[in-house]
Amino acid sequence: MQQAVIIDSVLPQKNMLPEADVFEIEWFETQKHKFSRQTKTGVLLQLINTNKKEWNHADALYNNGKLVAQIFIKPALTISFVSNQANEVADFCYYIGNRHLPVFTEPEAHLFYVPYDGNLYEQVVAKFADKITLSERQLFTQNLLKAKK
User: Fold this and answer.
1) What's the CA dihedral at 92, 96, 144, 107 to 10 degrees?
2) How far apart are CA 41 and CA 47, in angstroms?
3) Cβ–Cβ contacts within 10 Å for residue 114, how many?
4) Do 58 and 15 contact (CB within 8 A), yes or no?
5) Last residue of some domain: 26, 57, 73?
6) Within this chain, do residues 121 and 98 fall inside the same structural domain, yes or no?
7) 88: domain CATH number?
8) The whole model's pTM is what?
9) Residues contacting 78, CB < 8 A, separation 6+
10) Domain extent at residue 53
11) 109 pLDDT exceeds 80?
12) What is the DSSP-derived secondary structure letter of residue 7?
């Protein structure tokens, strides 16, 4: 049985580093407290989130000051909606919000997207027709649409 490498330090990075191994997580695991999983090259890592922050794409994972891997948030199938009409966007967000799903956005592209759900896809295609597409994309917490407080 392989001995787990304990990650003792996590430093945020903006981009993936070519020399780093890759530790893949799903978008819905960014708030997970503990991981014990292998990297792409088969190294078993143990991560414990001690400071209650979310895991982010490209976070650098260190053991005794040595870079071991970086977090990679795997792309997921999404239902995407594009519109620059405020009333259409409000209708879409209200419709999705009633299903308690997270809505992600890229405002500069007038793009809104949610994780794929088969029943929801059929419903939004019927309601919003040509404004709906399926696409693979990474779901980052910083793109999550949040209510103003």
Assistant:
1) -10
2) 17
3) 22
4) yes
5) 73
6) yes
7) 3.30.70.790
8) 0.87
9) 104, 113, 114, 115, 116, 134, 135, 136, 137, 139
10) 5-73
11) yes
12) P
